[in-house]
Amino acid sequence: MAKPADKPENLRYERKFVVSELMPHEIEALVRLHPAMFFEAYPQRFVNNLYLDSHDLKSYFDNVDGLKDRMKVRIRWYGDLFGIIEKPVLELKSKNDLVGEKASFPLVPFAMDERFQLDTIHEVFRNDEIPEIMKMQLLSLEPVLLNRYSRKYFQSVNHDYRITIDSEMEFYAINAQNNTFSQKYIDTVNTVVELKYDCGKNRGAPAITSYFPFRLSKNSKYANGIERLYAW
């Protein structure tokens, strides 16, 4: 899918850590005790993502194959996973190695329930104010994975660095027709910690990461969900 030219957010680094040896509250304690004086920047909430990919799962295989330049398409909303999704947002994430860029587009509401199918999301795209060239590309994709997690948000006292802590991760397989959401995987072991900052702040990042007792990891919730729920 072509990289969007409008509504880009600033380029930023995204460094991820997958932690299995500590509980989320223990990780949070480390963040709060960090010399950079991280504080809770936003109330904890559930994040929901519906991932879209081509029929041959190009985005997934680009990630697995380690391509530096890759694109991920998802629809994100907060709060309840099922029911009427009042404020969904289309997010197009392009990534070059550890540097990411994101374009966001608000969508019309839709229902995430047992009647959800491919036509549901395509109808959303047809009725929304998305650029026509992008709309045609989106209509070639299909929903393949639904995921949900609890997220806590922290920011350094100088506002240069942001940390999120994701736990209670759930993954659901999505069918092109009717969905019962019975094929699912719940990760009770891992917590994902992510450090985010603008490109101009990369020089100070080692001072942030060296404090933590866990190492940088390659991690994609989308890839993890696909591998857990689909067998070839």
Written description of the protein model:
This protein has 232 residues and is an alpha+beta fold. The chain has a single domain (12-229), classed as Hypothetical Protein Pfu-838710-001, CATH 2.40.320. Helix content is 20%, strand content 40%. The chain has six helices and eleven strands. The protein has an eight-stranded antiparallel barrel with strand order 1-6-5-3-2-8-9-11, surrounded by four helices. A two-stranded antiparallel ribbon has the order 4-7. The longest helix has 9 residues, at 24-32. The protein is globular, with a radius of gyration of 18 Å.
SSE pattern, N- to C-terminal = EHEHEEEEEHHEEEEHH
The domain count comes to 1
Annotated CATH topology: Hypothetical Protein Pfu-838710-001
Q: Report the count of strand segments.
A: 11
Q: What is the beta-strand fraction?
A: 35-45%
Corresponding CATH architecture: Beta Barrel
Helix % is: 10-25%
Stretches where pLDDT is under 50 for at least 5 consecutive residues are 4-9
* Measured distance between first and last alpha carbons: 24 Å
- Main beta-sheet strand count, sense and barrel state: 8 strands, antiparallel, barrel
Q: What is the number of helical segments per DSSP (H or I, 4+ residues)?
A: 6
Shape: globular
CATH class: Mainly Beta
Mean pLDDT: 91
